[in-house]
Write a structure and sequence with these properties.
242 residues, nine-stranded mixed beta sheet, 19% helix
C-alpha cells in the first residue's frame, strides 16, 4: 500500500466532505499539522466539526479555518488565544463543546481504543454533567463521557518511515498520538521521512497500522504562540537598557 503522497492536497484527495468531523493534533501552535490545515482551507469544505485542544491563534493553525468560516463547531478544551473564535461564538456563528482537558484527551483515546464510553469524576455535579448519565461508584459520583471517533485525523510527526510508523518530538507529543488512532482515516505530515528499518523500533510511538497517508513537509515552521521578553540591563555606568 502506497502511503506517501506528493503534497498535502493530494494526501487529502477524496477524503474531505462538508459536515465531517476532523481531529487536528497539536497543543497551542506546537505540533500542529499546518500544511494539511492549509490544504483543508483551500479545498473549500465547510460546516466542519473540529476536535482539537484549542483553535490556534488568529491567522495561524486552525485559526485560518475560522477566518474562512469553514468550522461550524469546535470540540475543545481551551480557546482563549483566538479573538476571531470569541467574536464568532458571541455572534452565534460558531458552536462550542467545552471539555476539561483530561476528559477531552481520554475521549479521544477511548475512541481510538474502541471504548464507546467511560465514567470520570471530573465535572460530576457541575454544568459539564448536565444531560449526561451520572452514576455512583464507591461513594463518589461519576459522569459518563462518550469516546470520540473522527471521519479524519490530521497529525504532525517529527519522523516517519514510508510504512507510516510515526515518531513525535518533545511537546509535539501531545494530542497527536491519540488522535492518530481515533480517526477512520489518518493523514500525517512528517518532517523527516525515512525508509522502513531506519527508525529504531523502540522509538516508534504510533504504529503504521493507524496511518493511511503521509506527506513529507521538510521545512515545517516552528511558530511561537506568545513571545515573552525581559529587558536587559546594560553594563554598569551606561545608564541605558538594551
Amino acid at each position: 500500500m502506497q502511503k506517501v503522497y506528493p503534497d498535502p492536497r493530494a494526501a487529502l484527495a477524496g477524503l474531505l466532505r462538508d459536515g465531517m468531523m476532523i481531529m487536528a493534533g497539536g497543543f497551542g501552535l506546537c505540533g500542529i499539522p499546518e500544511q494539511l490545515i492549509l490544504a483543508i482551507r483551500d479545498s473549500g469544505v465547510k460546516n466542519l466539526t473540529v476536535v482539537s485542544n484549542n483553535c490556534g491563534i488568529d491567522g495561524v493553525g486552525l485559526g485560518i479555518l475560522l477566518d474562512s468560516r469553514q468550522i461550524k463547531k469546535m470540540i475543545s478544551s481551551y480557546v482563549g488565544e483566538n479573538k476571531t473564535f470569541a467574536q464568532q461564538y458571541l455572534a452565534g456563528e460558531l458552536e462550542i463543546e467545552f471539555n476539561p482537558q483530561g476528559t477531552l484527551a481520554e475521549r479521544i483515546r477511548a475512541g481510538g481504543a474502541g471504548i464507546p464510553a467511560f465514567f470520570t469524576r471530573t465535572g460530576a455535579g457541575t454544568q459539564i454533567a448536565e444531560g449526561k448519565e451520572q452514576r455512583e461508584f464507591d461513594g463518589n459520583r461519576y459522569v459518563m463521557e462518550r469516546g470520540l471517533i473522527a471521519d479524519l485525523s490530521i497529525v504532525h510527526a517529527w519522523m516517519a518511515d514510508t510504512e507510516g510508523n510515526l515518531v513525535y518530538r518533545k511537546t509535539a507529543r501531545n494530542f497527536n498520538p491519540m488522535m492518530a488512532t481515533a480517526g477512520k482515516v489518518t493523514v500525517a505530515e512528517v518532517e523527516h521521512l525515512m525508509q522502513p528499518g531506519q527508525i529504531n523500533p523502540d522509538h516508534i510511538i504510533t504504529p503504521g497500522l493507524y496511518v493511511q497517508r503521509l506527506v513529507h513537509v521538510p521545512n515545517a515552521v516552528k511558530h511561537i504562540e506568545q513571545r515573552t521578553l525581559r529587558k536587559r540591563t546594560a553594563p554598569a555606568g551606561t545608564g541605558e537598557e538594551v
